[in-house]
Amino acid sequence: MRPSLSLAIVTLALCTGCASSSPRPEGVVEQWLLSLNRGAAGDPGRYGGRAAEQAAAAVLPDWHERDPGSIDKIQVGGDFSWVKGTAVPNEVPFRIEVTDGRVVEGSVAVAPCGDDPAAVEADGRGWCVGGASTGGVEISPAWTWPVGGDATDWLWAALAAIVLSLLAVGLVLIVRRTAGPALPAQT
Fold this sequence. Notes:
By secondary structure, the chain is of the alpha+beta class. It is built from 4 helices and 6 strands. It has 2 domains: 3-19 and 149-179; 25-134. The protein has helices spanning 3-16, 25-36, 50-59, 151-179; strands at residues 71-76, 80-83, 86-89, 91-98, 103-112, 127-134. Strands 1-4-5-6 form a 4-stranded antiparallel beta sheet, with helices on one face. The protein has a two-stranded antiparallel sheet with strand order 2-3.
């Protein structure tokens, strides 16, 4: 096997490891809220056991009696809430609009699964819902996901862009080398 082909295969294999597969706190909260939208078929306990089921009752007490699709809009903020001008870590703000016109705003407490002995691990890793409260949270109606990432996310993105660019240039050089001589220019 040619060294350049070996390098390309190793580079592609390393790039696949750059993608993160662990869920983010706000993604788990969104999935948890979507499980409430399934009515009796929903399973909020999947996202943190008994604590997640109790949190579901705090947000929508009649979630298991509702028809599937009874939530019109689900909005989830970043992985912290603003309460009286102070950021509260691991409190994910949310806003839902129910088909009967009611709006429920609040925050969901999340923690890494396994840190709390009472929490059930969701898929063996990630974040679990530990509780929820309604009201008292500042959330913009247009807020859905936080913009950007932290400095290490941008560093990994830049590194991936450089590696993929070098890989593309390398492949073009390999193709040119193996394609044969260039045709003479016509005048």
